[in-house]
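FW: tagging you since you asked about this chain on Friday. Here's the raw sequence from the shared folder, copied in full. Didn't touch anything.
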Amino acid sequence: MSTISHILGHFFRPTNWFLSSSTRSDSDIRVLSSDLLSAKGEVSGATIARQILNQYRELEDEGKLSYFQFILAEMDFDSAGVKSALSNYTTHHNAKSYGQFIAAAQPQWRQFFRRLNEAPDATFDLVNMRADLLRLMRAHSELEVIDIDLRDLFLSWFNRGFLVLRPISWSSPASILEKIITYEAVHEISSWDDLRRRLQPSDRCCFAFFHPAMPDEPLIFVEVALTDNLPASVQTILAQDGEVTSGEDMDYAVFYSISNCQKGLAGISFGNALIKTVVEELKQQYPSIKHYLTLSPLPGFAKWLASLPAQDHDGVKQDILTLATNHEQIRKPLAAAYLSQAKRENGMPVDPVARFHLGNGARIHQLHIDADTSDRGMKQSLGVMVNYLYQPDELIENHENFVNAGTIKADKAVKDYAQKAKTYLPTV
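HL: got it, structure written out here
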């Protein structure tokens, strides 16, 4: 069959994408998937891939689960073939036998996802497909093996060399601004006026990473306040009537919100590269800035306090969360203990934001109470926030000490607060 006939055959068979979902059976997408793996031509492969992605998008969760189970069952590698290829390579040890072994050792679904990505605008569809996979994996752990390869492909497709840094301003396209509102994950953007206050003043800026295959979809973005002092409250940063800092007075660049945008890219780290790239950008634009730091939440603080055993206080046994809620003066010591001493089984901090910034080489600089009085801020961290300081000359050393030995770099004041926590937490 000619290439043109092959393409037309797919467009006019009963599994066409333009038919309503009620006229299709679950087998349609499976037949197309098998066809994609056997397709020889680039054009015909891209056409089939687009049909698959269109049909997949219309499936409910039950159908998506069934489809992933089909991929797991039908696109695994051939164990006998792997053993044979390995034996052949061991015997001959040349480029040809090595290539045959590598091909045999990869499951077919890896090549399948590559071919799906050949369809026009397929990358965003695949990101959303992985988001579905991650969600379904919670109850179906057998699907995790598929994600190992899909994540590995994404690590290659979304490496730093492909990412494009773009400033987001009040004059950016409305479609992008709408997505910034939707994807904001730290401090909710309540309205267009709220967004304008974060983007329009000359001492506020926002930067996002984009990928050429997804030019209208931000991957991650960071909001920055450029100030002449260190803000002790995010409400001060977000205030409607705040004074604008002039360029020559800017001394601090405060990263107060970092939001990942694509659930399907979970586990693909962009934050480290984003912060470092934005710091270099700001250095060029604002040479007066001397300090680069965050104003970050402690999202697991209240949960950690609730998990601790009750302690005697003034002769009465009280749970620690209630104690911290009612006694503001002990929040800093408890927060310092949480950040520096609450660890997971692998020795890393319990707090995910701490793991991220300390892993980037930052150090714990200052703690602030009543720093986030929003409902979320009070519920997650009793209003406490923390600065992670990015000191260029110590980033590498801090990173290596943290990764290799779990060493947490913190200012003396923070360490002193952690010591005071022993008064309230003898078990810490």
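FW: The mean pLDDT is 91.
HL: agreed, and The two ends are 73 Å apart (CA to CA).
FW: great, closing this out.
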